[in-house]
Design a protein that fits this description.
10 helices; alpha/beta; globular; single chain; 8-stranded parallel sheet; TIM Barrel; two-stranded parallel sheet
Length: 301
């Protein structure tokens, strides 16, 4: 099975917990983003969830990933727009200007719209989603819904009609929570792995609890690799991101998924090989730059 554009990556790389990537992996002065770009194909930009990005920062980050010409940035849409529903034209323009450098440089993968569990499929919420899509129409977008009501046929039809990607979500199981899926509603396929621990963190509208780390077993990663393979048959691009409170753990999941999708990619930082020798069995120490994956292992296909 051939695949033209699949990007494995991570979220949360801007948090302090990611400092462990600078301890024993590469020279301590190397930016975390540069380290990640050597082993991943994309990152989510979490800071844009709370504030607009400065265009200067976007240019700095793009310089840090220059060694990987295929690397992409996926900014999270500001909570002011998704949760508070405040679409002030000045704030919208300010936010869009911050991520526009990625778009103009061909580095923007997809804008991710996060919605809480309380955001269910209703007439009012459908209208708000459509308004968001029209407001940010220049960019490809994907929406993460944590409530299962968005699996209804009418909800899926709305996403298709307005070219809104569906974020296939892995999260803890809870009452009427979004289960694992493999849906494609736009040219952009998206998968986010949040781990399966800490139910309360996912159900709250504004979570205040710390997230619990989760180490994915091989069987669960295999299931998501197979879903990614199916998405790739029709998508222009597929993004798979792992988000963990412990940065090295998120990168571990990304590396293992990448190896499942293409057995040629089996390199990892030396320190990770020491810490996760069981999970990274068959990997070797190297400093690769990931391009897009071009083939799947037969087991996945």
């Amino acid at each position: 099975m051939a695949l033209q554009h699949l990007y494995t990556g991570v979220g949360g790389w801007q948090s302090p917990e990611w400092a462990d990537l600078q301890k024993g992996l590469l020279p301590s002065r190397t930016p975390v983003l540069e380290i990640v770009s050597r082993f991943a194909g994309c990152v989510e930009v979490d800071s844009t969830r709370d504030r607009a990005l400065k265009p200067e920062a976007a240019h700095v980050w793009m310089r840090q990933v220059e060694r990987n010409p295929h690397f992409r940035f996926n900014p999270i849409l500001k909570r002011q727009f998704t949760h508070d529903r405040m679409l002030n034209s000045g704030d919208v323009a300010h936010w869009m200007n911050g991520v526009r450098p990625f778009w103009e440089a061909g580095r923007l993968g997809c804008v991710v719209m996060e919605f809480p569990w309380a955001f269910r499929f209703t007439v009012e919420n459908r209208a708000h989603l459509i308004e968001l899509r029209r407001t940010f129409h220049p960019f490809p977008v994907a929406a993460e819904f944590r409530h299962e009501s968005w699996l209804r046929e009418e909800a899926q039809g709305t996403l298709i009609d307005f070219r809104i990607g569906f974020v296939n979500l892995d999260q803890p199981a809870y009452f009427r929570g979004m289960p694992p899926a493999g849906l494609l509603t736009s040219p952009t396929g998206y998968i986010r792995l949040h781990g399966r621990a800490g139910v309360d963190w996912f159900r709250e509208f504004s979570p205040t609890l710390a997230r619990e780390p989760y180490l994915y077993p091989a069987a669960e990663l295999q299931e998501w690799a197979e879903r990614a393979a199916r998405l790739s048959t029709h998508a222009d691009a597929v993004y798979i991101t792992a988000s963990e409170p412990a940065g090295m753990l998120a990168l571990l999941h990304s590396l293992r998924l990448r190896a499942l999708l293409d057995d040629r990619f089996r390199q990892a930082p030396p320190e990770m090989l020491k810490r996760y020798w069981g999970e990274l069995a068959g990997f070797s120490a190297s400093k690769p730059v990931q391009g897009t994956l071009a083939a799947f292992r037969q087991a996945v296909a």
